């Protein structure tokens, strides 16, 4: 069985373009994965999950609160903060939330380290491993975002946001950018994991069906 030179050139063109597009999307996915990992670190360490609003009662404290730290504005330019990540001890009311965020952080940074496996394993295998790790990260972060409002009825929240604080009721406070960033991180993890699965499937079937037929014909004629 012979294959014309035109079909041979066409198969090579399809293969080249297909590989280039897959590599370009893969590089973009890797960059977004690294950005997602950095976002996870910011979400964990920043004391800006919730904070006071401008409508608080006169004389009430003004400040922000995170998983490890409570910061209250003072007469000094720098706020007066209690706690911190250096002690590795989250606020008692947010321990479960901090553990979930920590597991999410571990999963996403493990997926970043798995990028080194491209030199030793097949690309499809690496994409699938990273996809499952990113799904785990997104799931843990989603649980953390759900548990955080349920933990608002705590002494730290009452001291900052007033006695009207309750589960899913922030009192005189409102959610701040770190909590919103955590919610966006859940969506980011879902998108990255979906893209990783798509890239893995493309690696399993790298060439279009027509091109595979031409390649088969070339092998039979050799």
TrEMBL record:
Topological type in the membrane: Multi-pass membrane protein
Primary localization class, coarse: membrane
Keyword terms: Membrane, Transmembrane, Transmembrane helix
InterPro entries: LHFPL (IPR019372)
Subcellular location as annotated: Membrane
Keyword Membrane: yes
Pfam family, one: L_HMGIC_fpl
GO cellular component, one term: plasma membrane
Regions crossing the membrane: 21-45, 97-118, 130-149, 177-200
Tagged with keyword Transmembrane: yes
Signal sequence annotation: none
One annotated GO biological process: sensory perception of sound
Protein name: LHFPL tetraspan subfamily member 4b
Classification of source organism: Eukaryota, Metazoa, Chordata, Craniata, Vertebrata
């Amino acid at each position: 069985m012979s294959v014309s030179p035109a079909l041979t050139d066409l198969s090579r063109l399809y293969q080249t373009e297909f590989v280039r597009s897959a590599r370009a999307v893969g590089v973009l996915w890797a960059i977004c994965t690294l950005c997602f990992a950095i976002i996870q670190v910011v979400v964990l360490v920043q004391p800006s999950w919730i904070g006071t609003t401008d409508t608080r009662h006169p004389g009430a404290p003004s400040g922000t609160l995170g998983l490890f730290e409570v910061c209250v504005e003072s007469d000094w330019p720098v706020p007066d903060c209690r706690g911190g990540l250096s002690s590795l001890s989250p606020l008692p009311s947010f321990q479960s939330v901090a553990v979930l965020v920590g597991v999410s952080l571990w999963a996403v940074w493990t997926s970043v380290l798995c990028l080194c496996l491209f030199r030793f394993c097949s690309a499809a295998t690496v994409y699938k491993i990273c996809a499952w790790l990113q799904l785990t990260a997104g799931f843990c972060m989603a649980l953390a975002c759900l548990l955080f409002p349920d933990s608002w009825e705590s002494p730290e929240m009452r001291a900052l946001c007033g006695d009207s604080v309750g589960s899913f009721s922030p009192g005189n406070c409102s959610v701040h950018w770190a909590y919103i960033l955590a919610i966006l991180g859940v969506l980011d993890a879902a998108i990255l994991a979906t893209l990783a699965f798509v890239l893995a499937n493309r690696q399993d079937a790298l060439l279009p069906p027509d091109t595979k037929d031409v390649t088969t014909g070339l092998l039979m004629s050799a």
